Structure formats: C-alpha cells, structure tokens
Model the fold of this input.
Amino acid sequence: MRRKPEPPLMSNGIARKRYFTTDEANAYLPFMEETLGQMRAFRRRMEALTEEMGPVFENIASNTGGRIAAEFAATLFRFQRLATRIEDEGILLRDVESGLADFPALRSEREVYLCWTTGEPEVCHWHEVDAGFSGRKRLGELDENDLRNDDGDEV
Done:
C-alpha cells in the first residue's frame, strides 16, 4: 500500500495550496474510502437522531435537549472533524454520499482537477476547474507529461 504524502508547508509553517500528481492522488484513495465510510455512518446516525429530536425542539425553552441532543452534537463534531481532515490534505470533497472528490493538479501551469468518486479503483478522470462533474474526461485525454507536482517536477 502506498503511503500518502505529507501536505507541503511554506516557510512560516502554513500549508500552501497543494497540487497532486495522479500517483499522489491515488495514494490517498484508501484514506478517502475509509474516511467517507465513517462520514456516511455519522450522517445516517444524525438523520436518525434528528427524527428523535422532534419532541426536544417542541420543548426547547424548558430543556437542553438531554442525551439525544448531546449525541447529535458529538456526532456532528466527528463528522466535521473528518471533513476538515480531508480539506487539510488539499482534497476538495464535493459529495459525501457519492464520494465525489477533486484533487487540484497543474497542467501546463494552469489548475485542473483530478476527479474521483467512490467505487473507482483509481483516479482516472479530470476536468477544468469551472467544468464540474459533467465536464469529466478520461485521463488519457490529459497528457500525463503535463501534470506537475508541487515542486514543479514532471511526473
């Protein structure tokens, strides 16, 4: 299994915009599958708790919500923490349920997105930044020699 690379840091310790090669994006797929699975489970739990919270909302002025509200808040916190982990890696999560994610990449000095969705064995699509999912093209239509990593090295 490939080790996922560390996000690049500027000299002041702040993460800079990250650009991925296809290999680097593929190295993140096990992390994405696991994290998205957890996020989906948290989402299902929050949906179930929302149904249980109906009576709590009716009497909100007289109580603090008790166990159900506390569990909802804790689950929401865990969900948000996972979303932040993905974002901190430089990955753009578009949809939790389908697992749609974009990995910023550079093609001839312009930004494009390497596009992946749950169930795809590897990153095999890309699209222009303003094109979205409907503008996806197979990676073969993108000259792999044009993709560069954060150091400007050809892949």
Notes: The first strand starts at residue 92 and ends at 95.
